Amino acid sequence: MEEQPATDTQLVAADIQDLLLDTPDVEAFLTELARHSAAALGSPEARVFCGVTMLRHHSATTVASSDERALLLDELQYQFEEGPCLTASRTGVLIHIPDLEKDETWPDYTEVAAKNGIRSVLAVPFQLPDDTAKAGLNLYSETVNGFDEAAIQRATDYVQQASKGLRLAVLIAQHSQTAANLRAAMTSRTVIDVATGIIIAQNRCSQAEAMEIIKKASSNRNVKLRDVAQAIVDKAGGGPIATHFT
Question: Cβ atoms within 10 A of the Cβ of 217, count?
Answer without folding.
Answer: 18
